[in-house]
Amino acid sequence: MQLLSGKSALVTGATRGIGRGIALEFAKNGANVAFTYRSSGEAADSLTREIEALGVKALGIQSDAGSMESTEAVINAMVAAFGAIDIIVNNAGITKDNLLMRMSEEQFNEVIQTNLNSVFNTTKASMRQLLKQRSGSYINISSVVGLTGNAGQANYAASKAGMIGFTKSVAKELASRGIRANVVCPGFIATEMTEAVAEEEVKKWLENVPLKRPGTPKDVADLCVFLGSDLSTYITGQVINVDGGMVM
Ligand code: NAP
Question: Against a cut of 0.90, is the pTM above it?
Answer without folding.
Answer: yes
